[in-house]
Design a protein that fits this description.
heterodimer, A: 538 residues, mainly alpha, MetI-like fold, 2 domains, globular, B: 239 residues, alpha/beta, Rossmann fold, 6-stranded mixed sheet, 38% helix
Chain lengths: 538, 239
Amino acid sequence: MTTVLPAPVAVPALQRVRARWAWGLGAVAVLAWSLVGAKLLSGNVVNPAGSAQFGRFASAALSPALDRPFLGVLASSVLITVAYAALGAALAVALGALGAVAVARTTWGRRRLGWALSRGVLAVPRGLHEAVWGLLLVNLLGLDPWVGVLAIGIPYGAVTAKVFADLVDEVPRGGQEALLATGVGRLPAALYGLLPPASGGLLAYSFYRLECAIRSAVVLGLIGAGGLGYQLSLSFSALRWDEVWSAVYALSALCVLAVVAGRAVRRRLAAPRSSADRLRRDPALTAAVLVTLAGVAWSWWYLAVSPATLVSDRTGQQLAYVLRAAWPPDTDGPFLREVGTAAVDTVQMSVIAIALATVGAVLLAGVAASPAGRVSLPRRLAGIAVRLALLVLRAVPPPVWALVLLFVLLPGVLPGALALGVYTLGVLGRLAAEATEELDPRPRDALAALGARPVAGWLYGVLPAATGPVLAFALYRWEVAIRDTVLVGLLGAGGLGALLASRLARFDWGAVTTVLVALVLLTVAVDLVSARARAALR
Amino acid sequence: MEVRFGGAAALTGIDLTVAAGERVAVIGPSGAGKSTLLALANGSVAPTAGTVQVLGAVPAALRGRALRQLRSRVGTVHQHLELVGQLRVVHNVNAGRLSSWSAGRAAWSLLRPQGVPEVLDALGAVGLADRVFERTDRLSGGQRQRVAVARLLVQRPELVLADEPASALDPVLTDRVLELLAGLVTEGGGGMVASLHDPALALRHCTRVVGLVAGRVVLDAPASALTLADLAGVYGARR
């Protein structure tokens, strides 16, 4: 039997997506400009004199300090760090859940102005790094545990609000619209049509925030809040590399714990072991919720946090004094030029860092992803090794990487950029690996079943599907990296961070305001560019 | 030969041989083991007991290049779930010959599509030549199913495996697709195994019909000796 199909239609020409090509070429140009700015292509960046010290640091990795008294000190540092992280993350998730409702596109609908304004308000707490919040809050509250908790909770709360809102906004609208079409109210429609598809992402992000909070608690320790970071800086300045590595390993172990717990909960949520005929709660999930709540309560007790400090007279007076001194901002010409130069350095530092991290993450994601089926032993060992290496990269705070790199590199943009880059690689590598794991395996399996070699299977089955999420993560991390440059800047790597540190040390509050405004504006600009780029990716 | 997933037996006591030139329709109710049978034949599932021979080789015993070479001679259409939505149609069709392309050519083709004339021939055969540079996730389910068939046409396999190849197509296109698959079998000198949910299609396009119920063969006869009533019996014979 024969069938007649319509005659072949004219074949269309291949059309490139212009917007994407423009973004791609623009990114390459900005990267080239940043590399030139970092004097990577010209001039001297290497400091050969420091290689001996670097060698001693590296070789101590295999012989960390394990003596009893130091381990005791380390253990109590770990508890302090965990308590700060738990309280800070809990505050952040609470603030984030409330804030997400206020900044979600779903809430605002077509009222674009209101939506943009709400996002703008969020940019201020988000634009300042935890360490900056810490330094500012110390001036208000003195040495109080609230400094650490708020320094984590405020900026994290703002970031969490934004990400929660984006996660809900990115859920396909079909389910919710079907409910709205049948006359269901907006709140129930969101509860049934938007939250269930987003819930896995929301929970995963909350646990990811807890993991980040541990690192931030360490960073706050570096500037004096106590805990692991404080211990790390003491050992570092005493050149006790064995102790530094012990602290790094303790920190990595903490992060592993957070990752493992987060994953276990996420898996349980994705595939609940429920019986279809009876409503029953999952005991493991119930336990996770109870343990988290108990941990937060314990942290409150352990740090002896007292709400009274926040509303005391002394705090009020100090706040009034700082606010009076901080206004008007310093706007004289030479200083503004200095701020401009520092801002350029900051941008270049973040661009190099993100480029390094993205390339590394793409190359490592395939190996770092836990394979679905059974695989050979060498492949599994390689996966474990890469995952552990990524963990250490992101467990060590960027300022510590910067200090290490300053052994072998001259101060400037490059050591800061590399320090941020290796740290971001640790984060992005994990995110890229998870994005790879979450891909639909069927296209890849089909390519393997028709005999495609592994490289081709990766190019056709994984790369196209993973590019979008990985680049979106990279753009998100660029927004974070801009803030993190403040951190490495505190240590002479230049940029707005160095400027801020010098003005804070002089209590020059007018200049501090100017730098803070510049920082917030810069992060807003990066946010906008990143959002437009992500829109072009979709 | 049998296959178990965990404790549940998917297929038990199966002993089938498909000769060259044969077109076998596998029919049966949902969950009878049709997809598992096809997965065995392309080597993506290994039997728990017994052996599977494909084109004279045992896939479970092969590794690396030898396995890839065997797999390149077996083409599978799995509805349209094997397509990469983010790629343009041309790349999804070209994926059919990735086994014969070097990695460099595969990568270059993503930037500058290679072998477009053959892709257009294949897409023309399924009536989709005008969508060659469209992103695959912009196509409807039926169109994607035809892209999956075009991938097979470019692959030119000897053994054709098809899992509900026409589930989302109208009657005219369904006949067309099954004729194209039959043409591949004639050209490649191999055979075809297709799971079909429409008994009439099985009789019209296949030379032999195998009925599966709960993982067991309950019917195996030449299509010419069967009537629609015989096939309806397979669906009626529930556990």
